[in-house]
Structure formats: structure tokens, C-alpha cells
Design goal:
The protein is built from 4 helices and 3 strands. By secondary structure, the chain is mainly alpha-helical.
Length: 95
């Protein structure tokens, strides 16, 4: 993104009022929300694929690493346990 002019390159996301450029069309958050579910899933898959291809290069904040280590220690000590997604949904009354 060109910071001076706020221009987006193809496939780039601008945070705050998310604007995406997909196949030369710029989409606002509202337009994305109005898309059919199948098209939203295609956009999500493209974003996740891009994230997967680049996640190893993404920095992890020291606070996040500390939090994860703390949680791992709690599980190892028996003070906490991992739940799979179905257990989490059930605990929240959504499963």
C-alpha cells in the first residue's frame, strides 16, 4: 500500500474500514457483508491461503508467547485442560 496516497495493491486489505481489491474491483466492508456465503468463503479461503504461505515470517509478540507458555504450564500442572471446538461450543450453549 502506498502510505502517502492510501492506494491498495491487488489482494491487499486496508484495516479500519476494510477495503479489498479483488480482480480490479474495490469492495467495501458493507459490500463484502452483502455477498452470498459462497463468495465470502472464497475470499476467506484466499486470505487464509495467503496467511498460511506467510505465517512463518510473521512476528509473534513476546506477550503472546508468554501467554501461550503460561497456558501450557497450567495444562501440564493439571490446572487447566484443552477443549476441542465442540466442547467449547457446548460449554457456551451453542453446540
Amino acid at each position: 500500500m502506498d502510505a502517502e496516497f492510501g492506494l491498495l495493491e491487488a489482494g491487499q486489505i486496508k484495516s479500519q474500514s476494510i477495503v479489498m481489491q479483488i480482480d480490479s474491483d474495490i469492495m467495501t466492508t458493507q459490500q463484502i457483508k452483502s455477498l452470498p456465503a459462497e463468495e465470502k468463503l472464497q475470499i476467506m479461503e484466499a486470505i487464509w491461503e495467503d496467511m498460511r504461505d506467510h505465517y512463518e515470517n510473521a512476528p509473534i509478540a513476546p506477550e503472546v508467547i508468554d501467554l501461550l507458555r503460561h497456558r501450557q504450564a497450567r495444562v501440564a500442572a493439571g490446572d487447566a485442560k484443552f477443549l476441542d471446538w465442540d466442547q467449547v461450543k457446548s460449554a457456551l450453549g451453542r453446540g
